[in-house]
Structure formats: structure tokens, C-alpha cells
Write a structure and sequence with these properties.
The complex is a heterodimer. By secondary structure, chain A is mostly beta strands. Chain B has a single domain, classed as 3-Layer(aba) Sandwich (Rossmann fold), CATH 3.40.50. Chain B has seven helices and eight strands, in the order H-H-E-H-E-E-E-H-E-H-E-E-H-H-E. Chain B has an eight-stranded mixed sheet, sandwiched between helices. The N and C termini of chain B lie far apart (44 Å). Classes of the chains: A mainly beta, B alpha/beta. The interface between A and B is medium-sized, with 38 and 26 residues.
Chain lengths: 681, 181
């Protein structure tokens, strides 16, 4: 978003009111100071330093070339020229990002492999507000209440960043930063039409009142059909109904004083789409997602203080099996957070924060109970400029999670509500040593520990009596350790930037569905979630990108990665819906070339990946097996033309090389071609 | 390729190195990009400047290089260079007159001696005026409060003591993204 990103303070309803009171007091405390206001004006800072800026690495504002972590930033211009009409379509052009497109509207996104159906390892946020859905532990991209034209930049952190963002940021973080209506005038409408009966409209408008308050309204809708390529018989489930999405977001900033800003953001999204569910069966999902957030930012004598509170609601009507009653999944998360970023002396920057989170979900398909947890957290960050060439950053966060369950307990169930009365404390950290060897070279050494907690479904929100399947409270969180050595070099003679990274990652206590059982004397034995082992990853990324003669831009990247799973025998070979070793391609190459003479923009993107395998339901009726997926080369293109300054006409194509191409273990993807007209006003 | 042990080539190498060092320590004149950075940085003051700003170009009349640089800087600013919310209007200020100059900021050129620099420092303190230079050493020495450099990458250096004494106070966000000394 705009200001300093934070993932708000998260609280249950009563706590939310308390946090707002605290924020009010904070406001009163600082309004007595005169002068001017400064939240994070991304545009002004980017103009000043000549490069993107971010807060997603440490919480402190930083230039992208000085980060103690590996981050990619996709700018608004790159988003527009990607030709994509949704966020996964943008991300598929980014080095180190894996996108599995299952259907026309559903994709799973991973960082450096470890991508699977409903990938839980990537934490996604909009302006610091989590849009990752905790109940299943994944991101339903169509429910994100953001239009592409409202996005200033997409920030992608590779590797764990739990010390800043908390649980589940173990594979990486994507923080989508929208334009700030107080600083950025964005007014645009667009209409798109394409094959598969695609019709799409989007609009963003910004309103300002006397430099005191500014509001941005963005809204969009899309309707299209799914691919027509055959669904593998083993994955057959719901019929392919039409896919659609409608979203609206209202974001306002009020200047309470020269030094204090209040931001309010509310959103609503409605999305219906064909998906592949965690059992690799096709289902038709109907989502409704809402959110409300308030954040106060104050530039005080004791630092930049932010108090944030938000609540997300999401409902997911799963119609996986025709003839059966649909399952009504739901989830509400409330977060409250306060943080202070301050500088001591000339060389030390600190961030201190505290957070509370309440998360709950009703049991499904057996109703009448709900599972919940609350999390209290404390975190700190210290960025030390050791010398003019060396910076050392350390961040530590401690979370204490308390689990609970209330409500109906089925007969002969092997667990009681008291079994959920448990808690654990986990620490996560991020350390980074950055050495600017000279004006062109930067070397970065990082180490991180991340914690992925089991989803609410995994710890008991899923409860079926027939067949007897349940989540259990005894699942242990997955711990991810990551080590990385990076080298960046600017090549002025080529107008280019070189980046190389070598990384090692260890994931322990990975969990999967229905890999174990739970029983008690006199009770029915239930299939249950279970921790099944560990996985090790080693890899290398090389990237060269640049611009030439101002009208050409180009880039190429290569990733080599080897994953070794060390699973219990029952889970080996992809038998229980979890497999990384064979489902991550060893070699991935991406390349792009863009040309923008006068009023034209031409961009092409290539993606090659070596052969791999994918999970698909077993013919035995239980579990999964590995299916081969050949190496493939895909291409996306966009041609844009501006007949006049404020009008853009564009023709985009995705996966245009073949009539159908197998990229996952699901149906083959088809070319998607669409034309759009955009008017800026 | 050359043989580094060849005496004549070795002498040439030494000469080249000497020139390179001399170039490396050459005067850091303001460029258009430096001025853009300086102007934008002033937008992050707690009390940001706006509108027309008289920018005093401080130079040493006895130093032809300093005079030349001052004239070049004046030409860069022209009738007024708009940067963000401010327009920088040039005013030539001989260093001996800096204490009497009625300007909002000082742009310090090279060629000002250490003795003359003291006058600049005193004037900046007395009039609570921002002193800006592209010679980062002058910032470390406390002569100027802020140094800017556009190439090869943007650098902004603020001397906290000098900034405090001249009433310059920047936003928290800005302070975290620059180098302070």
C-alpha cells in the first residue's frame, strides 16, 4: 500500500475496539507536534533514489539495492507490460517463482519450488494485510480485492521472512503494494474481451479533498469459461461451470495532523471458479471475502509509530462432489499490531512490535463446533551500519499460539474438546550481512528460520464422520531453515544488473492429509493429518537484466534446484498428497524481451522448464501417485499501442505456442488471447 | 598484453595511476541530477520548503575553478529549476559575503578553503540555512549539513550535528534511508 507496511495488529472484535482506542490516544499524543507529515511516499522516495523502495524486508524503509534479503520488485510498468489479466499471470514471468495453473482462474504459486495444490508456504499480503487464507493455508488469488491498475509494485521476498510477517512466511512473501491516494492520482478504466468468452472490466478512481483526505475506489469484474481440455478421469469431480469474479475496494487516507495519518480500507470480493482441491479432485468453489482495516501512522519524536487493526472474513462453498451437500468452509481472522521504527545515532535502526491475532473456523462438514487459536507475538529488528560498506541486520520474533475447540463432539470421536487446550511457543529469525564491496558489487549472506503452522483445517476444522477423517491438535509446525549467499553487480557498460544466488533450505516436520490415524479405547479410528518427515533443497539462481537505448528491455534467468524428501514410508512416492522431490523442475529458464518505440510496446516472455512429475489421485481410490509431465516451453506476448496519450489498446496472448500444453498433472492449458482498451483520465 | 615488468610500461602505469587518483579526488561539481536530488531531499524536511527558493551559490572569487563552477551551476539553475514542490533560483554569493547573504539554502562549490569554510558554517548556523554540497568530505567535516551525489548511485549524507545546528530536521522515513554521520 502506501505507507509503512505492517501486518496489522490482529485482534478479536473486543480487542479491535481496544486497539482503536490505543490508536486514538497515540494520535492525541503526537498531534501536538507541528510540521509535516511523512508516511511512506513510495513514489517520492523512488524518484529520489532512482530505484524502488520497500519495507517488506525488515519493516524499515529501504532501497532495494540495500536489502538484507533476496527480493524481486515488479513495478506498475512491468505489470502493465506483462499482458496478464490477473496476479498469477504477472508472477509467472518472475525468476524463482513457480506457477501451477490448474484451471483458467486458479493457480498455485510457490517460491523456488515446493509448489503444490493449495500451497501453504507462501504468505501473500496487500499493503501489509494478509490475504492468505488461514483455514486451508493457501491464497485463493481470485478473491484478492485488488485491480492490477491499482498496484504500485509487487514485492517478492524469497525465503522465510517470519521474523517480520509471522507464521507461514516460510517459502517466501508476496506483498502487493497499492498506490496511496494521498500521493498518487490513479484514474483509469479498462475493458477486456477474449477467447473462452472472457469479458472483463476494471476501474480505479482517486478523489482528494483539500489535501486533508484522499480516497481511492477500485472495482472490477470478470467472466469467462474454464479450459475445455479434458480433466484426467481420476480428478473428475464437479462440472465445469462458468467462472466469474467481482471485487470492490475502498481505501481512504485522512491527514489527522501534519504528522499523523489514518488509513481506512474496506473490501468485498465474490468469486466462483473451478479448482482442484487438496485431494486433487476438481471442485467448483464459491468464495465470498470481506475485509476491514484501520491504520494510524505517526511520525513522532520517538520514531515512526503504526497501529493497525483488521479483520478478514472468507466463506468458501465447496461443491466438490455432485449429489452431496456442499461443504461450507469459513474463516475469520482478526489482527492487531503496533510497531515503532526508530533510529538511534547515525548507524542503528530498530523496529519493535507486538501483535495479537485471533483466528477461527467452523468444523466442516460436521457442523456445530469451531476450532480457533490466538497468537501473541513480540518482535524486534536491529539494522546496524557497521561501516560505510557493511550492514548487519538481525530480526527476531517470538510467537505463542494457544489452540482451542468449542462445540459439538460426535459420538465415538477419539478426541474431546479438552485435547485442543494446548499451546506452543516458536521463534523465528532473519539475519543478513550485506557487504558493498565497491560501487558495483554487493555481497549478501543471509540465514533465516521460519515457522509454518498447521492450517485450521489440519488441526481440527475438518471433521468427517463418514468416512472418518479429522484434523488433529497434535500436529507440529513445520520449521524451515534457509541459508543464502548472493552477489549483485551492476554492469553500466551493458545497462544491466547481474544477480547470482546460491541457497540451501531445510524443512522439518512437514505435514500432510490423511497420512495417519487417531484412535482411543472404545472410539472410532479416524484418518488424520500427520507430520511425515523432512525435505532438503539446494539451488542456484542466475539472472541478468537490463535496458538498452531506452527502448529495449531484456532479461534472462536460470534456476537449478534439487530437492530431496525424507518422508516416512507411508508418505513416500507421493502416496499421501505431498511430494516435492519429483514435483519441482530441476531446470527453469525464463527470458523476456521488450521494445517500446514511440507509441508502441512489444513484449515477449519465454518460460522453459525441465521435465517433472505431478500428483494425481490414485486409481485405488485413496491417496495420490506421481504422473509424468514433460519438459515444456511456453510463451506470452503483448502488443500495446497508444493512439493518444490517455488511451492504450493492447492485444495479449498467454501460452500461445500450442493449442494445448500440459504444465501440471491437471488438464492441459490452452492459449488465452484477449484485447483490451484502457483509458486514463 | 603488456609486460608489467617493462620499465617504460611500468612508468606509464605509475603515471596512469597518478592521473586516476587525481581524477578520483577531482572536484565534485553539481550536476543537474545532483540538484534534482538535493531539491527532492528538501521535500523530506519536517518543515518542507516550497515555492521559490533563493539558492546561494557560494564560491571563492580567487579560485578560477570555483568561479567557473559557480557560473556553471548558475547556468544549470537558469531562471529557476523546478524540483518537486520548489523552484531553485540562483544567487551568486562570494564566500566572503556569505554571512550577509539573504538566501534560503547554500550550495557550496569547491575551491573554498578551510578558513573560508568556517564562515560558511557560521553563516549556516546563524541564519539556520541548509548548506548542501556534492563534496561529501565537507559534510563529514561538518562544514555542510547535507551532501548529495547522483552517480554512480544516489548517495545522500547528512551530518547530524551540522543539521541540528542549522535547524534541519528530516522525517523518520527519510533518515532511515540515507547515511548519517
Amino acid at each position: 500500500m502506501k505507507h509503512i507496511n505492517c501486518r496489522g495488529i490482529n485482534l478479536p472484535f473486543g480487542v479491535g475496539a481496544h486497539v482503536f482506542r490505543v490508536a486514538g490516544l497515540l494520535t492525541l499524543a503526537v498531534t501536538s507536534r507541528g510540521a509535516v507529515a511523512q508516511s511512506m511516499d513510495y513514489g517520492a522516495l523512488e524518484q529520489l533514489f532512482g530505484e524502488p523502495v520497500t519495507t517488506s524486508a525488515t519493516g524499515s524503509p529501504q532501497r532495494v539495492t540495500e536489502l538484507p534479503s533476496n527480493m524481486e520488485i515488479i513495478t506498475a510498468d512491468e505489470i502493465r507490460r506483462s499482458g496478464a489479466n490477473n496476479i498469477p499471470g504477472v508472477l509467472r514471468h518472475v525468476a524463482g517463482i513457480d506457477v501451477l495453473q490448474w484451471t483458467s482462474d486458479e493457480s498455485d504459486v510457490g517460491v523456488r519450488g515446493y509448489d503444490q495444490v493449495r500451497s501453504p508456504r507462501l504468505l501473500v499480503l496487500i499493503d501489509g494485510r494478509q490475504v492468505y487464507a488461514d483455514f486451508y493455508g493457501y491464497t485463493p488469488w481470485s478473491t484478492l480485492p485488488v485491480e492490477l491498475s491499482a498496484i504500485r509494485q509487487i514485492e517478492i521476498v524469497k525465503g522465510p521472512n517470519c521474523a517480520l510477517f509471522g507464521f507461514n512466511a516460510v517459502g517466501g512473501v508476496i506483498n502487493i503494494i497499492t498506490f496511496n491516494p494521498l500521493y498518487d492520482d490513479v484514474n483509469t478504466v479498462s475493458a477486456t474481451g477474449g477467447n473462452d468468452h472472457l469479458s472483463q472490466g476494471s476501474g480505479v478512481a482517486t478523489f482528494r479533498l483539500a489535501d486533508v483526505t484522499a480516497w481511492r475506489i477500485s472495482a472490477g469484474g470478470r467472466r469467462n469459461d474454464d479450459f475445455s481440455t479434458p480433466i484426467p478421469p481420476a480428478s473428475a469431480g464437479s462440472p465445469r461451470l462458468g467462472e466469474n469474479r467481482a471485487a470492490i475496494d475502498v481505501d481512504g487516507v485522512i491527514r489527522l495532523s501534519d504528522r499523523v495519518q489514518l488509513e481506512i480500507d474496506v473490501s468485498h470480493t465474490h468469486a466462483n471458479q473451478v479448482e482442484i482441491d487438496p485431494l486433487y479432485t476438481f471442485s467448483y468453489e464459491r468464495y465470498v471475502a470481506n475485509s476491514a482495516r484501520a491504520m494510524v501512522t505517526a511520525d513522532t519524536g520517538f520514531g515512526l509509530v503504526q497501529a493497525t487493526a483488521y479483520t478478514n472474513w472468507i466463506k468458501d462453498l465447496d461443491t466438490a462432489t455432485p449429489g452431496e451437500n456442499p461443504a461450507h468452509f469459513g474463516n475469520q481472522v482478526s489482527v492487531a499490531k503496533i510497531q515503532d521504527i526508530f533510529k538511534l545515532g547515525s548507524d542503528h535502526t530498530f523496529r519493535l512490535s507486538a501483535e495479537y491475532r485471533y483466528d477461527h473456523a467452523p468444523t466442516v462438514p460436521v457442523t456445530g463446533a469451531h476450532v480457533f487459536y490466538d497468537v501473541t507475538s513480540a518482535a524486534g529488528m536491529w539494522d546496524w551500519k557497521v561501516s560505510q560498506t557493511v550492514a548487519f541486520t538481525n530480526a527476531l520474533r517470538v510467537d505463542r499460539l494457544s489452540l482451542g475447540r468449542e462445540g459439538y463432539v460426535p459420538a465415538n470421536y477419539p478426541l474431546s474438546n479438552a485435547d485442543w487446550n494446548r499451546s506452543y511457543t516458536e521463534a523465528s529469525f532473519n539475519s543478513g550481512l550485506v557487504w558493498k564491496a565497491d560501487l558495483r558489487d554487493t555481497v549478501r549472506l543471509t540465514a533465516a528460520r521460519g515457522v509454518q503452522i498447521p492450517s485450521l483445517i489440519s488441526v481440527g476444522a475438518y471433521l468427517s464422520v463418514d468416512p472418518p477423517v479429522t484434523g488433529v491438535p497434535t500436529l507440529r509446525p513445520t520449521i524451515v531453515m534457509n541459508y543464502e549467499l548472493g552477489w549483485d553487480r551492476t554492469l553500466p557498460w551493458l545497462g544491466a544488473q547481474w544477480r547470482a544466488s546460491a541457497f540451501h533450505q531445510q524443512s522439518d516436520d512437514l505435514a500432510t492429509v490423511e497420512a495417519g490415524t487417531i484412535s482411543a479405547p472404545g472410539a472410532t479410528t479416524y484418518f488424520a493429518q500427520s507430520n511425515v518427515g523432512s525435505s532438503t533443497m539446494n539451488g542456484l539462481e542466475l539472472k541478468l537484466s537490463g535496458t538498452t537505448a531506452q527502448v529495449w528491455r531484456w532479461g534472462m534467468a536460470y534456476r537449478y534446484e534439487v530437492i530431496r524428501d525424507h518422508f516416512d514410508p507411508i508418505a513416500q512416492g507421493g502416496a499421501t498428497f505431498l511430494e516435492y522431490q519429483h514435483t519441482t523442475p530441476a531446470h527453469v529458464i525464463i527470458a523476456n524481451l521488450g521494445w517500446a518505440p514511440r507509441n508502441w510496446e512489444l513484449d515477449a516472455y519465454l518460460h522453459y522448464q525441465s521435465s517433472m512429475q505431478g500428483l494425481t489421485p490414485s486409481a485405488l481410490g485413496f491417496g495420490t501417485v506421481l504422473a509424468p509431465i514433460d519438459a515444456y516451453l511456453s510463451a506470452d506476448v503483448r502488443v500495446g499501442y497508444r493512439p493518444i496519450q490517455w488511451v492504450t489498446l493492447a492485444l495479449s496472448g498467454k501460452n500461445i505456442l500450442y493449442a494445448n500444453q500440459r504444465q501440471t498433472s491437471g488438464p492441459s492449458v490452452e492459449p488465452q488471447v484477449f484485447a483490451s482498451a484502457t483509458v486514463d483520465f | 598484453m603488456c609486460d608489467p615488468m617493462n620499465p617504460r610500461r611500468f612508468q606509464s602505469l605509475i603515471l596512469a595511476c597518478g592521473l586516476a587518483i587525481a581524477c578520483g579526488s577531482a572536484r565534485a561539481e553539481f550536476t543537474q541530477n545532483d540538484l534534482q536530488i538535493a531539491g527532492r531531499a528538501l521535500g523530506f524536511l519536517d518543515n518542507p520548503l516550497s515555492g521559490d527558493i533563493d539558492a546561494g551559490i557560494v564560491y571563492a572569487p580567487g579560485d578560477p575553478q570555483s568561479v567557473r563552477e559557480a557560473e556553471a551551476l548558475k547556468a544549470l539553475l537558469g531562471q529557476g529549476l523546478r524540483v518537486g514542490n520548489i523552484t531553485l533560483k540562483p544567487v551568486l554569493v562570494p564566500v566572503a559575503d556569505v554571512g550577509h547573504a539573504n538566501v534560503t539554502i547554500l550550495l557550496l562549490t569547491d575551491g573554498v578553503t578551510s578558513v573560508e569554510a568556517k564562515a560558511v558554517t557560521d553563516a549556516a548556523k546563524a541564519k539556520r540555512t541548509a548548506c548542501i554540497t556534492t563534496d561529501l568530505a565537507q559534510v563529514r567535516n561538518g562544514v555542510c549539513a547535507m551532501g548529495v551525489r547522483a552517480q554512480p548511485r544516489v548517495e545522500i549524507l547528512v551530518n547530524r550535528t551540522a543539521a541540528l545546528s542549522t535547524g534541519l530536521s528530516f522525517s523518520v522515513v527519510f533518515r532511515m534511508m540515507i547515511t548519517e554521520t
